[in-house]
Amino acid sequence: MPGPVVDTPSAQEFVREISGRMPMAELEVIAADVERKSVLLRELLSQPCALDRAGLRLVLRNVFGTRRQADSILDAVTPNRLAAAIDDLLHSQGGLEQRFERFDAVLAPFTDRGFDLPGELLHFTFPDRYWLWTRWVWDPAVETGALRLVVTDDVELHAGSSRGQTYLSVGQAMAFVDETGKAAGFTTAGPGLFGTDVFLAAVYGIYLYTVLRMRMTQEFNRVVPPLPDLVRRLLGVYRLEV
Q: Could you confirm whether the keyword Transmembrane appears in this record (predicted)?
């Protein structure tokens, strides 16, 4: 990615917006919850093929995008097939892009509900190796998301035609956001990429508040949870299931 990648002034403006809605120290508390989620998933997914339906359901329930559809996904894909697909994604040899594509093929009947799942599984099982990609991080269908809001306009996040290729492009941009944010102090809430996860979730929360304020009545706005709760929901740690 030649040239500047992170729109630092925009990122810092989001920090100001976030601090107006919640104590910045709360981001560290949320990052600790995210780290607990990672520990849980690392334990569960060390041997995915050994998981029964209850174990797989616990995994799906701790992912924001699949939480409410855990049972319907298991019913359609079957526990054995899902466990094998997760094992292939996380532990098989071969290119990351190809593993990502194979996992997507298994979840094809649940494209919308399974969108977040491979990125969550990879990142929280191997947080020092892989990054988070969810629809709220970057949705190529509508070309928006937290990542788009803090990188420069010329950064290409939707590279190629496959989701596997896009995952690699998102990873490059995430690395720049993390590195710049650590230097500027806006992704330091947690170790590794966890601080970046929390920052981007808060950025997306601010974005949602802005959109809802423009499009919805005040009565609907009251239904939206406070920013700390919204960030926890996006990261799958609101009432983390263990």
A: yes
